[in-house]
């Protein structure tokens, strides 16, 4: 499989793989940003009733402006257009950018601003909890979810061997899904809950079965989980643990920020004690060096127990993907780190489908072909080990 081709027109977008039917829904996988943004813009242009977008980063760059133009155009047509962005994640974007969207008729809201934190005299709690979700809902038919923000990537990492004439979105490897079908309404309901939560409205508690991630036994299914704090959500660690604990043969994990804590780490090590195969792919270098060092602190424990670890080279791996037994796939916005598992607002999809899992495994196989396996007995300099230990101590604040 080669990398995703750069798309020149929003009306001619191409994903990595053809659509896959799962439980009455058409799912399309994207591994890079250019075709994803083209598909989003195409769907937004065809919206008749509503366009709702939620994102951690919305940048004032080439890709951000293309998406912003599409949102503004629909708002001027009278289509209900909402944008929920994270105030910290989008701190580099000038306020004038969002003010212009409001002037065009887009209902824009920033999640957990500094002003909000000061007004409630709770700066630490409010500023520490971020909206890390990445959703787009178009009418009642199409929904997007995954790990990609609305931002150009590629030129901000010197280690990447990328041609100078490449599109600015080329460089990061990720995992994002376009869903067309009845389950799009569930994604819309999830957006409404985070929209209400961002506006300070009370949320009804989720049923116990939802919070405990009880999944019916069907041949194919799609389930969505709002991960966050309180009874209105389900903890992200429960979602990962539920699927990992059921593994009978193997688990493959491709994760941008891999610092599993407490019971998630316990679930991974339990698989190895049971003789299950566990494979982990993480970035070789990334946008948050301390996170990488905290991950490397765990290498010895994992390697000693037979977990195979690979470091993706030459590209920033930003995926959040777990595949279990060639039939279960977990994807969405949640990393396997303390912040995603316990603090931030996240969105997770649990998909039971052999066809979808096979496609996701193909993405992981592509990453493996461009990765370096970490030797079981690799040693690191003393100063690096000390830095890794320090990063591990700070893991809850990364």
Task: Provide a concise account of the structure shown.
With 398 residues, the protein is α/β, with parallel strands linked by helices.
Rg on CA atoms, Å: 20 Å
Number of spatially distinct domains: 2
Total helical elements? 14
Helix amount: 25-40%
Query: What is the straight-line distance between the termini?
Result: 34 Å
At the fold tier of CATH, the topology name of the largest domain is Endonuclease, Chain A
Largest sheet: 8 strands, mixed
CATH superfamily of the largest domain: Endonuclease Chain A
Provide the low-confidence segments as ranges: 1-12, 155-160
Beta-strand share of residues: 15-25%
User: What is the CATH class name of the largest domain?
Assistant: Alpha Beta
CATH architecture of the largest domain: 2-Layer Sandwich
Give me the secondary-structure category.
Answer: alpha/beta
Mean pLDDT: 88
Strand order of the largest sheet: 1-2-9-7-6-3-4-5
Total beta strand runs = 18
Shape: globular
Explain what the structure shows.
- This protein has 398 residues and is of the alpha/beta class.
- The chain folds into two domains: 20-198, 2-Layer Sandwich (Endonuclease, Chain A), CATH 3.30.870; 209-397, Endonuclease Chain A (Endonuclease, Chain A, 2-Layer Sandwich), CATH 3.30.870.10.
- The chain has helices spanning 33-45, 62-76, 95-103, 114-119, 123-128, 184-198, 208-211, 236-245, 262-273, 289-297, 299-304, 338-343, 354-369, 382-393; strands at residues 20-22, 25-30, 50-55, 80-86, 107-111, 135-138, 142-146, 172-173, 176-180, 221-227, 250-255, 277-283, 308-312, 316-317, 320-324, 328-332, 346-352, 371-373.
